[in-house]
Amino acid sequence: MIEYHVRVHPSADRLPREEQLAWRLAAVAAGTEELDPGSAAMAVNRVVDNAAVATASLLRRPVAVARAQAHARAHHAAPGARVFGSLVRVSPEWAAWANGTAVRELDFHDTYLAADYSHPGDNIPPLLAVAQHTGRTGADLLRGIVAAYEVHVALVKGICLHEHRIDHVAHLSAATACGIGTLLRLPIEVTYQAVQQAVHTTTATRQSRKGEISSWKAYAPAFAGKAAIEAVDRAMRGEAGPSPIYEGEDGFLAWMLDGPRSDYTVLLPGEGEPRRAILDTYTKEHSAEYQAQAIIDLARRLREKTGPLGNVRSVVLHTSRHTHQVIGSGANDPQKYDPTASRETLDHSVPYILAVALEDGGWHHERSYAPERAARPETVALWRRITTVEDPEWTARYHDPDPRRRAFGGRVVVTRDDGTVVEDELAVADAHPNGARPFDRPAYERKFRTLAEGVVTAADQDRFLAAADGLAELRATDLDELFPAVDTQAVREFDETLPEGLF
Asked: Region (Disordered) spans which residues (predicted)?
């Protein structure tokens, strides 16, 4: 890997393009050719994972709204791209919008945590849409996915956005533009300009993940994917972007991040190095923010030791600064303790998640968030006795450079009314690569079948999984097979219950 130091340059420096981060990202995209077998296999797993969570979200309002907006653009489609839950083909940027929302809605697909946060599986919907629209093969799509993950992970490792309350989709849009560049074998110059435009247009605050969290949490990455496709389209037509977008004196680093003295280190593969960053990422076994995954597993274990939860005086989660401040009581969001809060708020509330997991001994992507479940009096009473605190040791482990020691969990201390204490800790989720039950290919298939049950017939589940397994050999005309067959009439009937918009 090559270390690149990224800092602010005055315009008078005339920083050469080849020394700009956007160019170097585009060069990584252009150099993604022969794929590491492990990376290719993991990319297939993530295609399956995305389809699983998208299928489970088809009859949720935000997903239906995004789908309706995409359908309104069907007359611009030819040849177009598919939308989950529909046989209609729409223009690729709107397919990316609808499918990206479906994938993100349940907060249930993959994650990578380092200096910043990310859900690199959000790259897949726009890449699949562009592949369909442009007649690319499954092998082309695989290359694009692996390249997008490589760029995404590099940015998340090297540049923290959250510290400045910038939403993580700014890194996503750059990665997606690079993945499209790889998919289409675009010249470095074109991808470079697309990255600059995409980053410029998708820089937003993290208010979408703060306080009363709304459905925009699902739309935000879909918007970034849509913007990346539009940026590539403009760049292919010869249009340039704000340059240098990262290093300019009025650019991303200077005004959004560490300011004029910014100095970030981004590690990128050298010429001929395998693209293996996707193997550092991990998916979710539970439908909740990633830093709650280990806590759900820990609660399941603790439940056997605590006894009656009505006799609990307090529960304290000792954890990393990130977990404490983003999904814990350190966020200072009263909404995280509100039983009438939105689902999006509850899946970012570790006090709520810990309370329900302690009571139920497990987690379900729908039942655990049902309004009647959140409002249960005994749950609310326990929930409001749960707090989080930052523990410097857990913060250090969160950032440990050794992936074998890196941890996203914490230590839970339960104090009963009689003063006795029960405590336990868990470093990583059971499904993490270093966990008790690392997610393997059969686990991805089980997750798909579980979420598709009652929505996709068993035979159609088999057909989809066979197509995904053979992704590298799929012809351009076969990419429709990556959309599980569902009862489209039921989806249409649900969509018809929505209010009308402008289109």
From this structure: 323-342
pLDDT at site 47: 98
Tokens, residue 221:
């990455």
| Residue 53 CB neighbour total at 10 angstroms | 25
pTM of the model: 0.95
Question: CA separation (Å) from 395 to 154, 171, 324, 335, 418?
Answer: 21, 23, 10, 24, 31
Residues 388, 319: contact at Cβ < 8 Å?
yes
| Residue of 217, 228, 173, 289 lying closest to 66 (CA atoms) | 217
Q: What is the 3-state secondary structure (H, E, C) of 116-178?
A: CEECHHHHHHHHHHHHHHHCCCHHHHHHHHHHHHHHHHHHHHHCCCHHHCECCHHHHHHHHHH
Residues 6+ apart with CB under 8 A from 385: 312, 313, 314, 315
For 372, counting Cβ atoms within 10 Å of its Cβ (0-12 exposed, 13-18 middle, 19+ buried), the class is exposed
Helix %, strand %, coil % of the chain (to 5): 55, 10, 35
Q: Give the end-to-end CA distance of the chain in Å, rounded to a whole number.
A: 48
Per residue in 6-49, pLDDT tens?
999 999 999 999 999 999 999 999 999 999 999 999 999 999 99
d(CA 122, CA 130): 14
Of 241, 384, 388, 417, the closest CA to residue 322 belongs to 388
Q: DSSP class of residue 427?
A: S
* Distance, CA of 165 to CA of 163 (rounded, Å): 6
User: Using alpha carbons only, what angle is made at residue 501 by residues 498 and 503, rounded to the nearest 5 degrees?
Assistant: 120
Q: How far is CA 170 from the centre of its chain?
A: 12
- Structural domains in the chain, sorted by start: 2-280 (1.10.4100.10), 290-426 (3.30.1330.120)
Cis bond upstream, residue 244 (ω within 30) = yes
Rounded-to-integer distance, Cα 6 and Cα 400, Å:
22
Burial class of residue 37 (count of CB atoms within 10 Å of its CB; 0-12, 13-18, 19+): exposed
What angle do the packed helices 124-134 and 216-236 form, to 10 degrees? 40
